[in-house]
Each structure stands twice: as structure tokens, then as C-alpha cells.
Amino acid sequence: MEYEKILVKKGTTYEIMMNTPEKENRLTNKSMTEIMDALSLADSDPNCHAVIFCAAGDVFCFGGGQIADHRKQTSLEVLEFGKYFIALHTAFGRCSKPVICAVEAEAIGGGFSLIEACDLAVAADDALISICEMAGGLPPAMGSAGLFNELPKKVIMELGLLSRKFTAHEALEWGLLNRVVPRDAVMDTARKMAAEFEEKNPTSIAIFKEMIRRMGQNVYEQRMETAEALLVTAFKSPHGYEVLDAKEENRKPRYE
User: Fold this and answer.
1) Closest CA to 30 of 2, 60, 70, 58
2) Nearest CA to 39 among 21, 57, 17?
3) Could you give all domains of the chain from N- to C-terminal order, each with its CATH number?
4) Which pTM was predicted?
5) What share of the chain is helix, strand, coil (3-state, %, to 5)?
6) Nearest CA-CA partner of 166 in 137, 136, 123
7) What is the pLDDT of residues 191-210, one digit of tens each?
8) Angle of CA points 249, 24, 20, to nearest 5°
9) C or N: which end of the chain has fewer Cβ atoms within 10 Å?
């Protein structure tokens, strides 16, 4: 497959980089398909011992771009995006190689969930993370579904209801990150972490990942599917349309 939305550097460590910084690396069906294809290549390459997942530009990922204007899409198209979103998030767990998320910039909504989906994560000390949908008038849905694996309920509720931006150090305290380092050290730290797997038994790593996946994957996918079903309700409701109408007309939404 020729990639348009990502860059892939192959080696003993595969580096998969989201590469649409002009669009804030927002997820689309196309970009998610390319990421999954690259993960599959890494998975099947016997010379690959680990994967680093990262992004170009000043934003790690601002969530989903495929459904930015839901007024132009049918309910089936909204659900199709949901299917790709679920498939991408489960692909990180199904890959037999450790996947390290390297976050050098802001991660919002679905971008936040990509950190959670990876096995390990390194972030810049000035990186910010948030689930911002509620600030824009829409409920957090699929981007927050996987967080129940990682965070206490009260933290998730504050993230989702108040849309506050949290720091990388706070995310480290929650256990969502493994390392917080200066921005210019993020990729080096991720590469050093990846290099540790070159001397480890790849079969044991694959078995351990599969064990973790099986222990939590069914519930994980059910949560994602529940959120997917609610997407249509959120986007196709009168209030959902009002959100985008208000943005176009440069006014505050009126929730009647």
C-alpha cells in the first residue's frame, strides 16, 4: 500500500508517523486504514522488535476529522467511521510487537485515546491532553470509551464534562504515561525503550500481549461499540446540528 496520510520508517523498530499536520493529524477512514496496514507489516516482519507511533507537526492528534461536519453524512457513514475507529484501537493490542506512543504535542479527544490504546507511552513535559468535545457542544463518545481501562471514574468525568486540559505530569500520575521528558528528548527516549526489546524473546512478548488483550479486550470492544451506537444519537439530534449551525453563524448554541 502506498501511504498518503502517514510516514513509515522500517527497521528493527518501525516508526509509524501520522503526517497530516496541516489538518492537525485528525483521524479519517483513510489514515486509520494506513496505520493499520503499517502495524500489520510490522507485526509480520521478523526483523521488527517494536513499533513507535508518533506524529508530525505541532499537534499529536485532534481526534476524528472524518465526521467533522455530520450534517453532510448519513447515519451509516457516521457508523462506518466508528467501525474504523474501533478497528484501529484494537489493532494496537493485536499487534504482537510492543507499540510505544511518542507524544511531542497536544493530544485531544480521539488523539488522547490513541495514547491509551498503545502499550507504552512517552510524552513531552509541556504536552497537554484533553477530551474537548463537550466544550464544543458534543458529548465525548468513542475517544473516551477506552479510558475506563486506565483511569478512575472521577478523572474521566472531569475530563469529559469540564473539558479541562491536563498536563503530561498529571497523566503520568494516573498511569496513562510511562515517561515524561523534555520535548526534544521524546523520540530518543522512545527509541531507547524500543531498543530494549531487541534482546528479548519475541514469542514471550507476543504471548504476554495476547494474554493482556484477552483479559480485557472483550469488555474494551463492548465499550467502544456502545459509544459507536451513541454517535448517531449525538450527531443527528437537533442539538447536534445546532452545534455546527452556531459555529458557522459565529454565535453561541441555543439548546432549546
Assistant:
1) 2
2) 17
3) 6-183 (3.90.226.10)
4) 0.87
5) 55, 15, 30
6) 123
7) 999 999 999 999 999 999 99
8) 125
9) C
